């Protein structure tokens, strides 16, 4: 047989059978999340009619919530419901949120006049905000639980399989992301509706909602195979009380007359168990190591903003990051890491993460070099002290134009001329058709106009006067701007489009998107060795009762990284985009050096072994206490017997 399954005690070739349900669940859930997110800004902009700034703000607020709510999910899982029930309950909330989003996009609900646009936008806005809130609560709440729950399925002797699981888990994240970001925009491009046909946002949101339901069903099917660890009380409350008492007790005994203790948490020994104190020490040790990590996500998440905007000034269209992830993860696990190990190099998890941060910095250096080349191809736009004058000769003969303080120049028939200067007078020396227009160039922060980017390689325009129709087709390049001229001698008929001419105002982008591949390759390599390793590291170094909490701490670094992007961008106020890329790269290199020093002094732990030692000590102490109690009881009973004997003799 080509494929042999080694089934033995619910295992497949050494892997617990239960993890396959978890992996499929993660794939479907990520498809649902990234699929919905792929068209979310377009939904805000063109359905709810938000402006660009409001749409962007709400989008980033939603993403930030998705990475803040894991803390809540981790507390609920580790302290109250357990990981299994938390995933079930919050997945239901998640699915409801996706359904509400799909319903909010049905324009026919409030389209009473059947013109294709909703008449009561308030209802659609309320529904969409409620849906997004439920989605943020659901996806964020289950984020730290699913990865940690998958790790719980492995026994102590399956450390290698557990490491492979986290790589496969990350593959599923990017596999779902790749498919959904391709499929849902296609679904949105379809036209649907009851009374009028419009862009099909309900389908684009409905398919991710269906995938979330599938994810929930698949996870429930594997219920009987899971190893479910029970929650150990309100652990977060105990942790906070323990830390608070240690700080307060240390402050009380701040005098030099009191003997020092090995760790400041040891000042909690008077009130709290030594096992809990040891577990908190382990968590604090890892959380301290997390302090520099948000800077990696500051750079990484800009591939969805700054790098996307950079691509709009280039020629081409393709998706590369998820494809590279799907390729590089197995290559790293099967080829690179084993090869490094054979060379005798100790490539520890923290060293991998350091390399990942350095690769991300190099990716931004590559992006800066690409931006420098792009800037050479971009058109020059008026400065703040200038205006742009566009002269169109719509006639069939050349025109000679004389402007103040300028030499006369000729505008050929069916052409356009641009001048970037404030002009006060115009004198036409030959008859013809002409038009003047002052263009208010609406620019982004870094100077390229919003209206220049036509995302169609070919477009067909329909010209009609009610009785006649004329179709005109033309190829367009990315980043180009055209003026189409319909002459006065235009005649309806089969050859009507031949008299229509197009004037190229701005040339198409000439620097191809393929030059972005090196920066995407570097950032993806950095992601593989940083993020996959970080997930496994967070799990392996966490105490048994705080694994979801530490996973939430890992995800919290992503949220902090996104806030840093906004802070640095606002404070720096750098006009040149390439300079901003260099700034972020420099910051990450500096953080990378700091992290490498911290990693050098970090001592890896085996939480299970440490917990076992303290439990053994506690057990020995309990045994000693019981033996002492028995001795006391025997002593009392002996004396009572002596008293009874004396009384009998008397």
TrEMBL record:
It catalyses: L-alanyl-L-proline(out) + H(+)(out) = L-alanyl-L-proline(in) + H(+)(in); glycylglycyl-L-isoleucine(out) + H(+)(out) = glycylglycyl-L-isoleucine(in) + H(+)(in); glycyl-L-proline(out) + H(+)(out) = glycyl-L-proline(in) + H(+)(in); L-phenylalanyl-L-phenylalanine(out) + H(+)(out) = L-phenylalanyl-L-phenylalanine(in) + H(+)(in). It comes from the Eukaryota. The keyword Nuclease does not apply. GO terms for molecular function: symporter activity. One of its GO terms (cellular component) is apical plasma membrane. Keywords: Cell membrane, Glycoprotein, Membrane, Peptide transport, Protein transport, Symport, Transmembrane, Transmembrane helix, Transport. It is a multi-pass membrane protein. One of its GO terms (biological process) is protein transport. The keyword Secreted does not apply. Its main location: membrane. Residues 615-650 are annotated as: Disordered. Pfam families: PTR2. Electrogenic proton-coupled amino-acid transporter that transports oligopeptides of 2 to 4 amino acids with a preference for dipeptides. Transports neutral and monovalently charged peptides with a proton to peptide stoichiometry of 1:1 or 2:1. Primarily responsible for the absorption of dietary di- and tripeptides from the small intestinal lumen. Mediates transepithelial transport of muramyl and N-formylated bacterial dipeptides contributing to recognition of pathogenic bacteria by the mucosal immune system. This is Solute carrier family 15 member 1. It comes from Oncorhynchus kisutch (Coho salmon). The lineage of its organism: Eukaryota, Metazoa, Chordata, Craniata, Vertebrata. The gene is SLC15A1.
